[in-house]
Amino acid sequence: IPGGGNIPLVDLIICRRYPRLYVVDGIDGRTGSSELDGRSKILTDTQEEKARKNFEKHRQKAIEKIHEQVRKDCEKDVDELSPEIWKSLIRCESPEEFYEKLSRRERSDIDRWKEKRSTLLQDRVRKEIEAEMECDDSLTRVSTPFIRLRVKTSKPSRPLGDTDNTGYFNACEDAILTIHRVSEEQLSFLTEGSVVRFQNLAVRSTKFEGSLHLSTCAKTKMEKLPSKLVRISPATFHQRYFVSLFRVTLLSKKLMKKLIPSFPAPEVDLAGISLKTVRSGNDSKVFYLTDETGLLLRVHRDEDHSEYDTLQTESSSSRKNLESISTIAFKDLRVMPFDPIENCAVAIFSQTSSVALKSASRRKQELQKWATSISGKAILVRIAACFDAGIPMMEHRHMKIQVAVGYIVGFTVSTTNASAVRGGESHAQLQVMVDCGGEALGVWDFPLFLLDEALRLCSSNSRSGEGAAASLEEERIHLSLKHLGRLFRGSGTLLHFVLQQRKKGPQSLYEVRQLKVADPLALSHAYASAHALDLHTLIPSNRV
């Protein structure tokens, strides 16, 4: 609706209820300091609890500091109102002796003033602290809870007042409803699959992630309609169910083929076996999951969530993680385009996502039973071995992206651009020759920007020591391809290459896009698992 509007009365089917969030105004909810410059920040339940504790610590320290300074100033002001006998008392060197020499009336005056002074001082200090807190924005925190619901409008086939109504509610529109200052009572009936009657809903002028955006206001009223009066069409509301990685992979590959990303991103509920956890930043983690399909899912988490404490800590090897099978279930993961380089589906754990506990118990039991079976263990071992080695487990890998492992044996320049090199042009095509153990060498286009990376990887593993690194750099400067090839062969470094198919007809079919040092032990495990061999019979234990 252009410019927004108001809905006097509407019945909405709650299709999905997302986790409760909090909007914090004016301060940084994580540090308790005034750093947001008036901007609001949205926090999850976990982040809100952490932010509230940090704020209380910050506030208490600030109050103690203010109290100490204010009390000194207030004592001076209050003492100016004191009787002369009190002023004489506090000025003398020995107040105890002075007090003993006073008459009974003077002592009584001092005792009464002590009580009055204490009351005046407390009142004055309290007012001064309140005034200081009002002036200091960092000591005030406003946090408002809210939830978002995915809802659909509905129309009854018969009047709602008819108790014999057996008609279905048919969905007409999809929208996101934001309920501000949500209470525990409201949360009790705002459940998925229920129909709620709303009065005076506001319609936002802009959409929320591609959907119509509704929100509550001060005049909004809501009530749950009795289940006897309404029936929801099965086509309108779908109960949550946990899909397999096969379904997620299909969605992810479908998004990869789209020129324009899907908005909003598809949301799925999924349970999987935790394969590996790596930290990708200060507050970010990446989780790799698998299941009976043998496919992989990479889940990105941007913010800190305590729900993830149930997962294993960071590990450099997924084989170690399989020593203790860990299953995890998510609700409302956002599916992203497929990653052909890592050959896995991708999803994001957003603020509307959550970790499923009771609702996923059956699916997690199925995964646990499969993972502990003989066939399941064998498949998981192979998945972990191939994952650690960086090679695809499935034969039908994305044809435009390939993986190769081998030794660099030399460099050459493509024939079509050789004359350009002699003429001094800068667009010559460098190619790398790699021994992958086959009958012929792999010859692929090699971008110049990867040469520094290749030199660094091979020089760090060079058998020639530190002198080899210096000579590598010297040969690179002189662009002596013959000497470069000799030095790469001498380094004895086994490399892992990610290749991308070129679009137009060059001399080479593939171009190197990424490279890293290969893990020989991980490759050995992958080979052994693929051929059902015991690695310890192939490699002596003292070398493993």
Report what the structure shows:
With 544 residues, the chain is an alpha+beta fold. The protein has 15 helices and 20 strands. It has helices spanning 45-79, 84-91, 95-100, 104-135, 184-189, 245-257, 318-321, 361-371, 374-389, 418-422, 451-460, 466-478, 481-491, 520-530, 535-538; strands at 5-17, 21-25, 40-44, 142-156, 168-180, 195-203, 212-215, 221-224, 231-232, 267-279, 285-290, 296-301, 327-339, 344-349, 354-355, 401-413, 430-435, 442-445, 495-501, 510-517. Strands 1-4-5-7-6 form a 5-stranded mixed β-barrel. Strands 10-11-12-14-13 form a 5-stranded mixed barrel. A 5-stranded antiparallel sheet has the order 18-17-16-19-20. A hairpin with a 4-residue loop joins β13 and β14 (344-349). α11 (451-460) packs antiparallel against α12. The longest helix has 35 residues, at 45-79. The chain starts with a strand and ends in a 6-residue tail after the last helix. Residues 29-37, 156-170, 306-314, 417-424, 463-478 and 535-544 have low confidence and may be disordered.
How would you sum up the major sheet?
A: 5 strands, mixed, barrel
Distance between the termini: 67 Å
Task: Give me the number of helical elements.
Answer: 15
Helix content range of the residues, please? 25-40%
Q: Summed up, what is this model?
A:
The chain has helices spanning 45-79, 84-91, 95-100, 104-135, 184-189, 245-257, 318-321, 361-371, 374-389, 418-422, 451-460, 466-478, 481-491, 520-530, 535-538; strands spanning 5-17, 21-25, 40-44, 142-156, 168-180, 195-203, 212-215, 221-224, 231-232, 267-279, 285-290, 296-301, 327-339, 344-349, 354-355, 401-413, 430-435, 442-445, 495-501, 510-517.
